[in-house]
Every structure is written in structure tokens, then in C-alpha cells.
Amino acid sequence: MRVFGVLSSYQDIQSTMLMPARIRLFTHRFSSLLPSSSSSYPPPPPFSLTFRTSLSHSAPPQSHHVSATKTPKISISDSAKFVRTVLFLPPGTDPEEVTEDMILPGSNIVLGPYAGEAKVKEVQFMGSSIRPKDCPKDERPEFAMLGRSNVGKSSLINSLVRKKEVALTSKKPGKTQLINHFLVNRSWYLVDLPGYGFANAPESARMDWSAFTKGYFLNRESLVSILLLVDASVPPQKIDLDCANWIGRNNLPMTIVFTKCDKMKNKMGNRPDENIKSFQELIKESYKIHPPWIMTSSVTGLGRDELLLHMSQLRNYWDN
Ligand code: GDP
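^ thats the input. predicted complex w/ guanosine-5'-diphosphate below
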């Protein structure tokens, strides 16, 4: 199946990954990225677990032995519990059937049966809307990119569509706030929402994003997922936490896209993985199930193909 053909090509980009290309599902390294709600699960290493690869569409059944050292062994149902509490399971995925190969590198996202064509072949700018009700009405599935000013949204959009300067949104506070629609492959929209939290803007303007985009989020039926961009090179910022909590409280679909994950040498503070862990810790109360998250860098290309694959599975499920 196509999904696993694509997965094998990840080896090519392993060198740019901050996390191992094949995340060890139950290793300390992976669990250290997770909120402490899951710290009791899984049990600390060393331990042993055998995965059964029983996916009809992949290679013939075989066993993967992960980090085998000593007991205790955990059952496949225990692993299913872990899968349910920590990983993002897309529709059509059975927690009992999840194997480590199915987790997208640098994320908690399991790749399921709906993943498919993820290449961006064509992008058309379809226009800007001043009000949510002026947005295109053709009901193609769409992903809305939201984030603080300077989070790297334009860079990520340009990296996703592999074109320079597709995202030419106004960056100055006080200028008209626009919703920009880009039609990808003539089949789905990437939507560039106004950035929030301009450093020099007055407090009222900083939180304007919510007034401006609230109507869009709550009424846009074709919205498959919000892509909330969060800068992983700095500690969690209140305005981003407020935004993530608002999205969670309103039960809106969201993927957290951590940006600037290449910035490892931050003299002032923590590493990206530590900031990512803290961010998730601080928003967990607002989410019944763990939202999907992924590490990206527009400088190295980290996470680009994985994010597009994730979007393909959400989109294809939405289309069905
Ligand atoms: P926007 O305001 O959210 O659209 O942010 P931009 O895309 O304009 O990026 C803001 C700044 O962050 C620019 O100086 C970019 O070069 C820088 N930047 C964006 N993405 C990355 C990234 O992945 N890694 C690093 N190191 N810098 C980035």
C-alpha cells in the first residue's frame, strides 16, 4: 500500500530529524516528550515488547522486537492503552494493531488507512476575504493555519507548497486582517489566517485574533483541522496557550505544528523538545484526548512530508 511505500522513504531524511526516524514506541526518549499524565505509562525501561505486524496491506506478518532487555513484559492491550492515551489515532485505526512503523517521525501521529497522495503539485491563490462569510463556498476540505506573528507561518506555507513567497500576508499590526485561501491540487484549501500577538500592538489588538477568527472557526463546516503553529524554540507563551485552550474547549479539530525545531542551541532556555513537553503539559486540561502534534523546521525541511501525509489522511477521511 502507498502509505508504507512512503514510510520507507523516510530513511532519506533521517539525518535531518531531531528524533529517531523510527520512534521507539516505549523508549524513555519518546516518553520524555510526553505530558506527565502519561508518565505512569508505559513502565520505565528496561522492558520488553513484541509487536505483531498484522497489517494486511503491508509486508507479510513478522515480529519486531523492541529494546528487549528484561521483564516486565506488557501485553498488547497495555500497548493499546498507551496508544489511546498518548498517540493520535486517525479514523479507521485499531489501537491493537498499531505498530511503531505506523508513527510519523517527530510526532505522536499514527498513520492510518486513509493516508494517501500527499504531494503538492499545484497551488493557486484564490483570494483574500475580509470577513469569514466572504470565504469560498465550494466546500472543499480546508486546513487553517494559525499562529503568533513571527512563528514561521509564511515560511511553513512556502515550504509546504515548495514555492517562494506564496504567503504574502500583511505582517504589520493595524493593517487589514485577511483570510487567504490557497487551492492545492484543485482539491483542498490551505488557509492562511491573520497572525496574532504582534509584539508592538496594544493588548486589545493582540487578542483580536479571537474576535476575527471565532466566526470562521465555529461556522466553517469544511474546516478539517486547525494547524496551530507554536514556536518550539521558546518556552510556552501565554497567548499560544490561551489559543490552544480556547480551541480545545470548543472541541475544534487541531494539530499542533511546532515550528523552528532546528534551533537546538538556545542559550537562553530549553531545547525544543523540552518546550514541546511543557506546552502539552500546560494544555492537557482542555483536551479529552491527546491532540496530534508534529515537529517541523522550514530551514531543514523536518516534518514537511510527514505533515502533508497527516493532512492527507484527515482530508481523505473527511471526503468519505
Ligand atoms: P510569520 O510571521 O509567522 O509568517 O513568520 P515568518 O515565516 O516570516 O518567519 C519569522 C522569522 O522566523 C523569519 O526570520 C524566518 O526566517 C524565521 N523562521 C521561520 N521558520 C523558521 C524555522 O523553521 N527555523 C528557523 N531557525 N527560523 C525560522
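Residues 1-74 have pLDDT under 50 and may be disordered.
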